[in-house]
Amino acid sequence: MYRERQPSQSRGTFASGFEAGTEECKECYAFSNLGLVQRRLGEYDKALESYSFALNFAPLAVPILLDRAAIYMEMGKQIALILIIARCLTRISRTKKRC
Q: Is 68 exposed, middle or buried (0-12, 13-18, 19+ CB in 10 A)?
């Protein structure tokens, strides 16, 4: 599993489970965690791809959207960052109206 001091080893553990494809919601968390490991390794393009896979399972998951936004911020892509933040705010405002 993922450990703070050994992200390169964690990447192999997470990536090995994805070769056969995924269909369950729990895979969303695994892809999100893989994206976190890749981000910490500086592999931003791979991390964005992992977060995209996670969002296929949970398109409006605010924590995953914010993780993606953080990568875009680190890469200096402000337009993509603004679009993601707007999506998060929309999701949050819709959730509050239902409560």
A: buried
